[in-house]
Amino acid sequence: MNMPADRSAPASAGIDATSGHALLPRAGRLVAILPRVLFIVTVLYGGALFWIAPRPPMVDVPQHAGQVMLLRDLLAHTSPWQNLVQINLLTPYLVGYGLALPFTFLMPIGAALKCMLTLAYFAFVAVCVGYRRYLHGDARLDWLFVPGFFGFAFVWGFYTFLVAAPLGILFIWLTHAYATATSVRKGIGILVAGTALFFCHGLVFLFANAIGVGFVLFKQKPFARKVFALAPFAPLGVLCIAYALWSRATDPLLGQTVPGIDVFKWGFDFQRLIALPVYVWGMNKGAAVYLPLVALMFAAPWLWRDRINADRSVVVPMLAVAFVWFLVPGTALKTAYLYHRFAVFLLPAYALMFCASRSSTSGAGHASSGYRSRASMVLGVGVQAAIIAGCWIFFANQTVRLHRFAIENAPLDKLLSQTEPGQRALSLIFDRASPAFRSTAAYAHQSLWYQAEQHGFVDLNFATFVPQIVRFRPGMMPLQPPALEHDPGSFEWTKDNGRQYRYFFVHKIGPLPANFFANNECDVALVVQEAEWSLYERRNCR
């Protein structure tokens, strides 16, 4: 991840020869070292963000934590839920969950996922820097690899997507090398790497393979060589089609209308034109305050007089991002936020198109270029300093918000301390938003920490959905919890089989409606209430 020295700054004109010999080496060393040190420190700061909140406000992370612990208990034959769920190894989430599993034997599940996300972030930046070096790109643009990991996908807690992101960049790198000089050995490597990427995340797999195919079509001539060079991608396409058919055949929600879950939604409107640059920084319009920084990042290579790489195939990843941005639906096959999450690739794809201009790599040879050279140097340094400052402002803002959420969500600790392990619970989240983190859905799945930390089972559960590594056994899926996620007020004791739940985790501003748990079977008592969190327990069933 070390950022190479920025050689774009020329020596000051007008320094006499004697002092120049003494001062230029020192200035050169400072210019070389300072950006590199700042870059490394900033990336380390980014890695620390995952650790600020004990239970981070990343929406889906508690569900992923619950999946990992279900997997661990099922493998150890200690799960009280073996009659309810089963392991599903044919999943594109296999690698993300499989890598987290060993960490759970060394540390709590929350720390295990944070370790994986931290390593994924470091790997993402490292692979982007490595690919940029391979393309002989401008090292100053490495800063565009830093912030996007903490945008839309981070806030929504798309754990497996984030873990797959660096592997997707690595696969793109490998396919570029393959398309440049094809060989049987490289083709086999593409097939193996592509298969591994499929079991990391299906969407990243499709995105990276589309770019790989684009590289081949762009670089290989004539047509017959294009067809031959596409051979490694054919089995990967068959794998994708086979999985799509299998998932359709095993989807328990196929053909059902579930309130709050769209089957398909195009989601194209005027706001989409600026959506992806906003999603680099967050999940909603509040992140639009960083649009000037995005504009500066996009302008930087032109202000530095960089040039598009002589290998024009480098534009393929950016074209793929643009295709996703403007043409991919927001929801398809009941999978939401399809195009939004790809904001993580926007800035890297753009940065990887450019090479530093010859003047920026010629060192002190332009020391006598006069006023224009000095003005160019000042502009270049100023732009880089502004980008660095913008990244630090963004990380500082994330730090404050994460710390405030940790305080805001502290009452959940007290609720969890009042529960016994290994019980079934129902999550009733009336108010999903977090004012502290400025997220509209931070509390949506926080109840799942009971499952992750105390071996319970909480509905709504991701075991409902096809891609998960632990799924409900046939006929065991609850009828209503997917609907209750979006409309908890529709809960009815008999219809929703309230008797099967010992605990009810409620997050609501204000009290529950009178007789909310009214029934003729069991008593339901309030165990503890802290701030907006309440824990109810089923007792004395008749």
From TrEMBL:
Keywords: Membrane, Transmembrane, Transmembrane helix. It comes from Paraburkholderia fungorum. It comes from the Bacteria. The chain crosses the membrane at residues 33-53, 105-131, 143-176, 188-218, 227-246, 287-304, 313-332, 338-356, 377-395. The keyword Transmembrane applies. This is Glycosyltransferase RgtA/B/C/D-like domain-containing protein.
